[in-house]
Automatic annotation (TrEMBL):
The keyword Cell inner membrane does not apply. Keywords: Membrane, Methyltransferase, Mitochondrion, Mitochondrion inner membrane, S-adenosyl-L-methionine, Signal, Transferase, Ubiquinone biosynthesis. The keyword Chaperone does not apply. GO terms for molecular function: 2-methoxy-6-polyprenyl-1,4-benzoquinol methyltransferase activity. It catalyses: 2-methoxy-6-(all-trans-decaprenyl)benzene-1,4-diol + S-adenosyl-L-methionine = 5-methoxy-2-methyl-3-(all-trans-decaprenyl)benzene-1,4-diol + S-adenosyl-L-homocysteine + H(+). Its main location: mitochondrion. GO terms for cellular component: extrinsic component of mitochondrial inner membrane. Component of a multi-subunit COQ enzyme complex, composed of at least COQ3, COQ4, COQ5, COQ6, COQ7 and COQ9. Interacts with PYURF; the interaction is direct, stabilizes COQ5 protein and associates PYURF with COQ enzyme complex. It comes from Chrysochloris asiatica (Cape golden mole). This is 2-methoxy-6-polyprenyl-1,4-benzoquinol methylase, mitochondrial. It is a peripheral membrane protein. The gene is COQ5.
Length: 327
């Protein structure tokens, strides 16, 4: 069951809890405020003045979305090449591990939120097709009397090879989706993909729709993480699984020191040289430091109503995969 709204508001991005309570009570106060319209206006201003962080900068909640949008609009074309350069290709292994953890089968319906240029979605389709081929081989081996035409036909139909699986890639940024669609076309992905423009905090999907929800390197960019988690819970079917791959807290002091040096001294320089954009990559490293560590994020996932929540730290905690179920 989803956490009650007041409880969820406690987790509101580190703001004073009293602000959250006042904000949530505004409609009631409007009708009964003892200080009249002025009091209501003051409370409204309080709500508007809610602050959050954009990297190390303090900004209003209203500002953050626009700033994050600008970052990804600016880096979209160079996003994939920068990922390879910055992580020396290791992001590919982390994403593969996410898929192995998910272990989807033909028929699985996946929602990949903040899906950007489609890395998780393409891996999902490859995984399903590999599963399907494995099954098919086993079945064909068991059926002795098929003609070669029948065998060839079984291998040809791409849609069949997904067994009804579909991945919906939902992202708030048009440019990221555009690059993703071009990549899909160039790499020959046709069936089983849908690209949807949407906000993780207000997903444009019905309740109880998906088997799996993934969000990879996306959730730290969202203004209200608690709302995104509640939305994840809402759109998953009972029994569905939440999986999040995100930067996390490094658990080895020596590696942490080296990682900090690399992050702050090298990554923005790479961003400037390759993408002509120092600021966006400065935001990237700062936003990683502002994201809650493994245990704290686990509690936030539990607060959203997920059960059997667990996590696995990878590469000394540089990233972690959190998992939870809607039961
Ligand atoms: C670092 S990229 C990750 C892309 C992809 N998941 C990957 O692993 O390569 C972060 C993505 O989050 C998206 N994003 C940021 N805020 C969002 C929101 N509120 N709702 C949906 N997507 C959001 C950005 O547009 C961007 O595409």
């Amino acid at each position: 069951m989803a956490a009650p709204r007041s409880r969820a508001l406690w987790g509101c991005c580190g703001h004073g809890w009293w602000r959250a309570i006042l904000a949530s009570r505004l409609p009631v106060l409007r009708s009964s405020c003892p200080w009249g319209p002025l009091g209501v206006r003051l409370l409204s201003q309080e709500k508007q003045a809610s602050e959050t962080h954009f990297g190390f900068e303090t900004v209003s909640e209203e500002e953050k979305g626009g700033k994050v949008y600008h970052v990804f609009q600016s880096v979209a074309k160079k996003y994939d090449v920068m990922n390879d350069m910055m992580s020396l290709g290791i992001h590919r292994i982390w994403k593969d591990l996410l898929l192995w953890k998910m272990h989807p089968f033909p028929g699985t319906q996946l929602l990949d939120v903040a899906g950007g240029t489609g890395d998780i979605a393409f891996r999902f389709l490859n995984y399903i097709q590999a599963q399907h081929r494995g099954r098919q081989k086993r079945q064909l081996r068991a059926q002795q009397n098929l003609s070669w035409e029948e065998i060839a036909k079984k291998y040809q139909n791409e849609e069949d090879s997904l067994g009804g699986s579909q991945v919906v890639i939902c992202d708030i940024n048009k440019e990221m989706l555009k690059v993703g669609k071009q990549k899909a076309q160039a790499q020959g992905y046709k069936a089983g993909l849908a690209w949807i423009l949407g906000d993780a905090e207000e997903l444009p999907f019905d309740d109880d729709k998906f088997d799996v929800y993934t969000i990879a390197f996306g959730i730290r960019n969202v203004t209200h993480i608690d709302r995104a988690l509640q939305e994840a819970h809402r759109v998953l079917k009972p029994g569905g699984r939440f999986l999040c791959l995100e930067f996390s807290q490094v658990n080895n002091p020596l590696i942490s020191r080296l990682y900090d040096l690399y992050s702050f001294q090298v990554i923005p320089v790479l961003g400037e040289v390759i993408a002509g954009d120092w600021k966006s990559y400065q935001y990237l490293v700062e936003s990683i430091r502002k994201f809650p560590p493994q245990e704290e994020f686990k509690e936030m996932i539990e607060d959203a109503g997920f059960q059997k929540v667990s996590y696995e730290s990878l590469t000394s905690g540089i990233v972690a995969i959190h998992s939870g179920f809607k039961l």
